[in-house]
Amino acid sequence: MAFPYKHFLVIGATAGIGKALATRLIESGAKVTAVGRRQDRLDEFVQTFGAAHAKGERFDIGELAKIPDFVTKVMKESPDIDSIVFNAGVQSPYDLTDLDKFDLTAFHLEVKINFSSFISLTHALLPYLQRNPNPTSFIFTGSNLAIVPAATLPAYSASKAALNVFTLCLREQLRHSNTKVVEISPPPVQTELHDYMGEDAGRQLGMPLDAFTQQVYQGLAEGKDQIVIGSIGPVDTFNGIVDTRRTAFESLSKMMRGGKP
């Protein structure tokens, strides 16, 4: 199945899943505008694929107040952008019982980067996608930890759980529009995300990045709106939780709109 999207704006495209997915999308024939904080990596990305296929935009999504102006600039320069891919994220362990070492500021920052920034970007970008007469999409990279949280990663798990709920609600509210909402739910993947464990150990944790990226791409190409890869615990049990929860959500949504389509 061919993608209906031609120009992807990939948030967090300078490392890890974001970079790998941006690369795969270009290889499929799409154009990618890569967003990240590190100019040298953006320059390398553009040089690798050429200006006809890649563009770089330096921006720190943690600066929430600057997001509206950033989106206006990007969409004015590239009005053909029709799909937004959200990948940026940070992960750190926290011991909530050790009050002397528990960094509350860092905890809030992690939630802001992993969740609040995505909401602000969605709010700013949605009007542009809705004005586009062609198919458009939001693609969010969540986590299996949104369903089964890790006790040592409360900020990350909570932010991904919040993002999961947001994608469900956004998809429901956009059900009659031309904007599709896709959620990718990864297992641990071998990326820089786990560098707090030590670079060698962290980057060997989880699924190989190439294998993960190929499964994501296949799910996107098949038109899925929920791409769950891997599981926490037995696969059937985990997927059963995901499916049952979504069914319950859709039933509640239908009831709240009075049974209307």
TrEMBL record:
One of its GO terms (molecular function) is oxidoreductase activity. It comes from the Eukaryota. Keywords: NADP, Oxidoreductase. PROSITE patterns: ADH_SHORT (PS00061). InterPro entries: NAD(P)-bd_dom_sf, Sc_DH/Rdtase_CS, SDR_fam. Belongs to the short-chain dehydrogenases/reductases (SDR) family. This is Short-chain dehydrogenase/reductase SDR. It comes from Penicillium concentricum.
